[in-house]
Amino acid sequence: GILHNWNDEESVKLLKKCKEAIPSKDEGGKVIIIDMAIENQSQDKESMETQLCFDILMVSLFRGKERSVDDWKKLFLAAGFSHYKITPILGVRSLIEAYP
Question: Name one GO molecular function term (predicted).
Answer without folding.
Answer: O-methyltransferase activity
